[in-house]
Structures are given as structure tokens and as C-alpha cells.
């Protein structure tokens, strides 16, 4: 591996990385693995499907697994999925079909998505590693030696990149849902890994690019798949090479990416997954909101990436900067042009984490100190609030948080779990130890400034998914409302529905085991469910003279999702 000052291009494009060997100690592998597991596993266990995208996507998976829906054109009571794509629904349905009978169907459907999140983390680590191995990315060689070795430097940078990904605030909820968004995240990270590692080993990276781009297209984002491929080709072609062999590999890599993109595009076109959902009005109307949204959604990766781009501004066309930058630009443009800005920005998080680079201790000290103090105050405060509210739910003290829970979640009955409490206590103690370690006088390793942000994000997510899980499950699940519906109807289980959302229909099918039919069809069911906000339209589109109102079934935590139950009038 060439050092930066041995590279002819480095004379005019100097690297800003000044890193000694003692600053690139690797994070212990066991600690990093346990840390990732502590972030990935909570949120996939012990809960029902949540509204809205989570339960809606699961409804299509459940119908596919039962054989009541076409695999190539899934429809739930005639409605296509809100988020286009086929592969995510296939993955959930296949997992449900392969799972043994004692495994709950909703948990079985989460298993492939759990693996996708873990795969996204692994792909991000290796993307950072291979990009950091680029000759232009290497730190400056010292006059008397002692600079970081290429391999150790790349590993330390990769550890920091993975911590930066975990630390991003917007990752937590969306990465634990069984939706096409998580599948798109996993395939995006896989494609980025393939493009990052192509100069070193062509076979596995080529297959990774093909699987990533094809999977992204089949998950409902063929335009982003094509855009990522174009960005990868541009970054590969513009990369400066110092020898003929490297230049030949550059064109070979670009050709492989173009072939993979063509295959992915053809596959998406064959399955009719190309849909133009872009409107320029979104840009003019929402860009200030999106800017504010980006600040917290990608914190702290955004300020770190901006700092890196400024310090490496003379090497913007170098592959280790241009490739992740291209992925980020595509995600930002998609967020501006599409209504689901959060799910588009989600695909840019691995690249934002990859852009994080070390630029020398002195220059980045103030930025790291600012992030550390903000992280310490923010996540410690969040953890304290979670513990206080949990204590109030269990004991009624303090009284005000207990009253707030009773007001916001009427009918909720708290439960006590020793395993959940034990996990929460261990996580809190680990946070205290981590704060003490970070404040100690240790040698500055280049991933040290990201330990607190990643640890704080993991801590609060784990506390929410243990101490608050019963409350969140009650508040975000349709199960309580569906139980109230089932208690009012007879054993026939046949219900006509009008203007209900996909999430509501999926919940009625799964939690209530009800047979649903559109109200416009001559189904002859004895019961009718209408969205409470759509009763006026129901009086026009449905002959309500045939029905007698029975009750308004409220959703305990959201009055905007009430349903009105009717019984067919006797003639």
C-alpha cells in the first residue's frame, strides 16, 4: 500500500490526515459485536406490529404466506402496497412459511429484516475499511516514522464509521420495522460495499454490487438503484491511479457496475416496478423543513461529514471521498423530491457514516468536545426521563408522569418484567462506565469521539425497548382496538370495510382473524366497519339504510383512527 507522500498525486493534493500508530488501536472485536447486538436485537422481540408502515407491510406478508394473494401483484382488498416493491414482502412471507408452528408469525417475518440490519452494519464497516485503504486516504508519513500503518488505520476508521452509523438518531425506529425501507437500507449498504472493495477483489464485490442494486430495485427503489450505480461509475472513473494496472482495474470496475445496473434495471422493468413518484413542488415547499429534519435525523454524522468534506476538499474527486459523497447526494435529492423524506434519507446514513474521516487531533478537538458534551447531556437526560416514567408507571410516584401516562394511554395496565429490568440496569451501568472511560486520560484513538454518541443512542433505544415496551406496544399497536371490535361482533367473523387504511385492515385480519370484504361488493357480511372521519362519504358511497350503527370503537391513544361499527339491518 502506498503512503500519501509517496503517491505522485499527493504532492498537489495533500492528505489532511495526520495520525500516529498509537491512535489507531482497534476496538476489541467482542465488545464491538456485543455493542451491535445490543442495538439490533431490541425492537425485534416482544412486540406486536406497530402502525402504520410496520403493520401494513406485515399484512401483505401474512396474506402472501397464506396463499391468498398474488406474489407478483400483491393486493390487500384490491389495494396495492403504499411502498412499492416485491422482495421485502417475499422475504417476510418466506420466513413465515419456513418458521416452525411455535414461532409467532409476526416475529418470523422480522427475522430476515433483523439480518438485513446486521448486514447493513457489516457492509458499512467493510465499505469504510476498503475506502480507507485507498492510497489517497492514507495519513501523512512522518519524517522519522511512527505514522499509522495502512491496515491499522483502515480498521480504526472503520470502527469509527460503524459507531457513527449507530449513533444517528434517525436510524433507530426505521431500522427495526419490517418495511421496504429497511430492505432498501440493507441493499444500499451492500452495493456500496461492493463498489468500495472492487479494486481489491473483483468477484465478491461484483456479486455484491449485482445483489445490492437488484435488491434495491426489487424493494421499490429502482431509480435510486440506477442513480447509485451512475454515482459509483463516476467515482470509479474519476479516481486517480498511479499505474497502468490500477487504471485497467478502474475501467473493469466501472464496467461491472454498469452491467449490474443494467441487470437490476431490466429485472425491475420486467416486474413493473418502475414508478415515477417525484414532484418538483415538494422541493419548493419543504426544503426548509427538510434542512431542519436532516440536522437531527443524521446527527452526529452530518457535522462530521461536513467537516470531513471541508478538510478533504482538495480530494473531492478521489474515490474514497467521491463514492460515499455520491450516495449521500442521491439520498438528499430523493428526500427533496419524494414525499417520504425520512425513508429516502435513511439510505444515505451508511454513506454519511463512511464520510467520517480523521483529520488530526488538534484540528478536530473542538468538534469532538462539542459532540461529547451534547451527547452526554442529551442521552443522560433521555435515560433519566425513561427511568422516571417507568418508576411512575410501576409505583405511581412521581405523580405527574403517572398521570400523564394515564391521560395519554387510557386503559393501559403496566406490567413488570425481571429480564427487561435486568437488561435496562446493565445498559445503564455500562453507560456510566463508558462516560467514566471517555472522561479519563486515555490515549486518543481516532474512534474515541464516537463512543459516547453511539453508546447513548444504543442505551436509549434499549431502555425504550425494555422499560417502555409494554407502553409503546399498547400505544402503537392496533391490538387493543381490534380486541374491542371482536368483542362486539358475533362468531361469523365476516366484516365489510369502507375507507379503512391498509394498516387498519391488516390489523383486523391479523389480530382479529376477521374475513374482510370491500363495502362496495355484494358480499353480504353482517357487519360493516367505517373510518369515523369518513362517515359522510360512507353515506354517499354505501347505502347506510341497510345498516344500524352499533358503536364507535376508539383507538385508545389516537382519536383520529376511530372506527364505527354497523350491523346489517334485519328485513
Structure notes:
With 571 residues, this protein is mainly α. It has 3 domains: 277 residues, no CATH class; 115 residues; 90 residues, no CATH class. The chain is built from 23 helices and 5 strands. A 5-stranded mixed beta sheet has the order 2-1-3-5-4, with helices on one face. The longest helix has 35 residues.
In round numbers, the mean pLDDT is: 87
Beta-strand percent range:
5-15%
Number of helices: 23
Please, how many domains?
Answer: 3
Q: Going across the major beta sheet, what is the strand order? A: 2-1-3-5-4
Number of strands: 5
* Oligomerization category of the chains in this entry: single chain
Structural class: mainly alpha
Distinctive features:
3 domains; mainly alpha; 5-stranded mixed β-sheet; disordered N terminus; single chain
Quick structural gist:
The chain is mainly α. Helices cover 60% and strands 6% of the residues.
Helices and strands in order:
Blueprint: H1 29-40, H2 53-66, H3 87-98, H4 105-132, H5 150-167, H6 171-174, H7 180-197, H8 203-218, H9 222-238, H10 244-270, H11 281-297, H12 301-311, H13 319-337, H14 341-346, H15 349-355, H16 361-395, H17 399-408, H18 418-439, H19 451-464, H20 469-476, H21 479-488, E1 494-498, H22 502-512, E2 515-518, E3 527-531, H23 535-541, E4 547-555, E5 558-568
Helix pairs in contact: 2-3, 2-22, 3-4, 4-5, 4-7, 4-15, 5-15, 5-19, 7-8, 7-9, 8-9, 8-10, 9-10, 9-13, 12-15, 13-15, 16-17, 16-19, 18-19, 21-22
Amino acid at each position: 500500500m502506498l503512503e500519501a507522500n509517496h503517491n505522485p498525486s499527493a504532492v498537489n493534493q495533500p492528505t489532511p490526515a495526520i495520525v500516529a500508530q498509537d491512535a489507531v488501536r482497534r476496538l476489541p472485536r467482542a465488545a464491538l459485536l456485543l455493542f451491535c447486538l445490543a442495538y439490533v436485537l431490541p425492537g425485534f422481540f416482544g412486540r406486536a406490529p406497530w402502525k402504520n408502515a410496520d403493520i401494513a407491510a406485515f399484512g401483505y406478508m401474512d396474506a402472501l404466506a397464506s396463499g391468498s394473494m398474488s406474489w407478483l401483484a400483491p393486493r390487500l382488498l384490491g389495494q396495492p402496497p403504499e411502498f412499492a416493491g416485491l422482495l421485502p414482502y417475499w422475504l417476510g412471507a418466506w420466513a413465515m412459511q419456513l418458521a416452525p408452528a411455535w414461532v409467532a408469525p409476526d416475529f418470523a417475518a422480522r427475522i430476515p429484516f433483523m439480518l438485513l440490519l446486521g448486514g447493513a452494519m457489516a457492509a458499512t464497516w467493510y465499505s469504510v475499511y476498503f475506502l480507507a485503504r485507498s492510497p489517497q486516504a492514507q495519513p501523512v508519513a512522518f519524517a522519522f516514522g511512527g505514522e499509522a500503518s495502512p491496515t491499522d488505520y483502515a480498521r480504526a476508521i472503520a470502527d469509527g464509521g460503524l459507531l457513527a452509523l449507530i449513533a444517528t438518531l434517525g436510524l433507530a425506529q426505521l431500522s427495526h420495522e419490517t418495511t421496504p425501507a429497511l430492505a432498501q437500507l440493507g441493499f444500499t449498504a451492500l452495493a456500496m460495499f461492493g463498489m468500495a472493495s472492487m479494486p481489491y477483489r473483483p468477484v465478491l464485490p461484483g456479486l455484491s454490487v449485482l445483489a445490492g442494486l437488484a435488491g434495491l430495485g426489487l424493494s421499490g427503489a429502482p431509480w435510486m438503484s440506477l442513480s447509485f450505480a451512475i454515482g459509483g461509475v463516476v467515482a470509479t472513473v474519476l479516481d486517480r491511479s498511479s499505474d497502468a494496472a490500477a487504471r485497467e482495474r478502474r475501467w473493469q470496475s466501472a464496467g461491472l457496475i454498469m452491467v449490474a445496473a443494467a441487470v437490476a434495471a431490466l429485472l425491475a422493468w420486467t416486474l413493473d416496478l418502475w414508478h415515477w413518484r417525484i414532484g418538483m413542488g415538494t422541493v419548493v415547499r419543504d426544503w426548509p423543513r427538510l434542512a431542519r429534519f436532516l440536522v437531527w435525523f443524521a446527527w452526529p454524522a452530518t457535522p462530521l461529514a461536513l467537516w470531513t468534506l471541508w478538510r478533504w476538499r482538495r480530494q473531492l474527486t478521489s474515490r474514497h471521498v467521491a463514492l460515499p459523497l455520491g450516495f449521500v447526494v442521491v439520498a438528499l435529492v430523493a428526500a427533496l423530491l419524494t414525499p417520504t423524506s425520512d425513508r429516502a434519507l435513511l439510505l444515505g446514513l451508511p454513506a454519511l457514516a463512511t464520510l467520517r474521516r480523521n483529520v488530526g487531533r488538534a484540528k478536530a478537538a473542538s468538534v469532538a468536545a462539542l459532540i461529547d458534551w451534547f451527547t452526554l447531556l442529551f442521552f443522560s437526560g433521555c435515560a433519566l426521563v425513561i427511568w422516571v416514567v417507568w418508576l411512575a408507571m410501576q409505583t405511581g410516584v412521581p405523580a405527574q408522569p403517572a398521570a400523564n401516562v394515564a391521560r395519554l394511554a387510557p386503559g393501559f395496565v403496566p406490567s413488570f418484567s425481571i429480564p427487561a429490568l435486568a437488561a435496562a440496569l446493565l445498559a445503564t451501568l455500562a453507560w456510566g462506565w463508558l462516560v467514566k472511560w471517555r472522561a479519563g486520560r486515555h490515549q486518543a484513538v481516532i474512534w474515541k469521539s464516537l463512543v459516547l454518541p453511539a453508546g447513548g443512542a444504543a442505551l436509549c433505544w434499549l431502555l425504550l425497548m425494555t422499560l417502555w415496551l409494554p407502553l409503546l406496544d399498547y400505544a402503537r399497536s392496533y391490538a387493543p382496538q381490534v380486541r374491542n371490535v371482536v368483542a362486539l361482533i358475533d362468531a361469523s367473523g365476516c366484516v365489510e370495510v369502507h375507507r379503512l387504511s391498509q394498516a387498519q385492515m391488516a390489523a383486523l385480519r391479523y389480530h382479529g382473524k376477521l374475513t374482510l370484504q370491500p363495502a362496495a361488493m355484494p358480499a353480504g357480511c353482517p357487519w360493516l366497519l367505517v373510518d369515523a372521519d369518513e362517515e359522510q362519504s360512507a353515506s354517499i358511497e354505501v347505502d347506510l339504510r341497510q345498516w344500524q350503527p352499533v358503536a364507535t370503537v376508539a383507538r385508545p391513544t389516537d382519536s383520529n383512527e376511530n372506527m364505527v361499527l354497523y350491523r346489517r339491518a334485519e328485513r
